[in-house]
Amino acid sequence: MTQLSVPHLLGTQDLTLDDFNLIFETADNFKEIINRPIKKVPSLRDITIANIFFENSTRTRISFELAEKRLSADTINFSSSQSSVKKGETLLDTVNNILAMKVDMIVMRHASPGAPHFLSKHIDANIINAGDGTHEHPTQALLDSYSIRGKHNSFEGLKVAIIGDILHSRVALSNIFALKRLGAEVMVCGPNTLLPKFIGSLGVKVELDVFKALQWCDVANVLRIQLERQQIKYFPSLREYSLYYGINKSMLDRLDKEITIMHPGPINRGVELNSDVADSEHSIILDQVENGVAIRMAVLYLLAGARPEA
After folding, report:
1. Which residue stretches of 36-163 are H helix?
2. Has residue 3 been placed in a domain?
3. Is there a domain that residue 7 lies in?
C-alpha cells in the first residue's frame, strides 16, 4: 500500500492498521532526511497549504509549519484573532475565501468538536485536524505512538497508562483509538471528576490510584490539566491535584521496573510532573517533539498523494 485509505486526517479512529504502518514507515524516511545537513526536499513543491488556527497553539502550529517548509510547500498562516471571523464571518465562508486562492490542503484547529468533519463535507481540499475542541488530535496521537514504537519496538502486549485530565483532553481520545488499533492495552487514570462517563465503553481499564497505574504500565503518557477548558472546579486546587496525581522521581524509584514517561506538552512542572521526572532518563518528551515534525511531514506527503491531480 502506498496511499492512505482516507482523503483527510480527521481522527485516528478512521485509520486502518495499514494506514498506521504506512505513516510510520514514511516518517522513518523523513526523520532520516531532517537529520541530514540539508533538511529540505521538493516533495510538495507544487502544493499550497493553509494553516487555519481558531485556537492558540505553539508546538502544533510550529511543528506543522516546519514540516511544510521541509517539504517545500507554499504556506498561508491564518489566525482568527486577526481575521474577518471577528466581524461575524462564518467558518465555511472563511475557508471558501481561502480556497478561492487555490489552496490544496488545510490544517485546522478549532474549539468546536466536529468542525473539521463539517468542512470535509463541504469543500474540495484535504483536511488535517490539528485539534477540534475536546474531541480528537490525531497527529499528536500518531507522534505519541511513533515515539513509543521507537522505544519499545512492538505494541503487542504493551501496557500504556494515560494519566491526568482525560475529560478535557483531545489527546487522550485519539491515543486510545490509536493504541488499541495498534494492539496495546490502555488504562486511563485520574480523579473521578476528570474521567468521562463513557470512558469504560471504549474498552480501557480505569484506575483512580496513580501509583497503581504506574505499577501496571510500561508507558505513562501524562496529560496537562487544562484549566482553560474547565468551567467549574473539578478538584480543590492544583496543590491538591499534585499531591495525589503528580508524578515525582521517588515514585518511579519505588517501582520494580523502569517505565517510559511521555507528555504532549506544555508541561505544568510541579503539577502533573516534577522536573526530576520530566528531565530524567525515563522521559522521551523531547523525542516526541522531534518525531512530531517527521510524522506531520509523512501525513502531509501521503494526503497530497491522494489528491486527484497527483
Report:
1. 59-70, 91-99, 115-120, 138-152
2. no
3. no
Residue-wise pLDDT tens digits, 37-51: 999 999 999 999 999
Q: Which three cell numbers stand for residue 42?
A: 521538493
Domains in the chain, number = 2
Assess if residue 43 is contained within a domain: yes
Q: What is the rounded CA–CA span in Å between residue 203 and residue 169?
A: 17
Instruction: State how far the alpha carbon of 207 is from the alpha carbons of 8, 199, 247, in Å.
Output: 34, 11, 15
Task: Quote the domain boundaries for residue 115.
Answer: 12-136+290-304
Statement: the pTM of the whole predicted model exceeds 0.85: yes
The CATH number covering residue 167 comes to 3.40.50.1370
The residue with cell 491538591 is 240
- pLDDT number for residue 123: 87
Nearest C-alpha neighbor of 155 from the set 178, 132, 130: 178
Contact 113, 134 (CB under 8 A): yes
Kindly state the DSSP code that residue 225 receives in the 8-state scheme. Answer: P
Same domain, yes or no: 143 and 90: no
Question: Same domain, yes or no, for 272 and 297?
Answer: no
The total of other beta-carbon atoms located within 10 Å of residue 82's CB is: 8
Q: Please name every residue paired with 74 in a beta bridge, in sequence order, or none if there are none.
A: 48
| Residue 283: Cβ within 10 Å count | 18
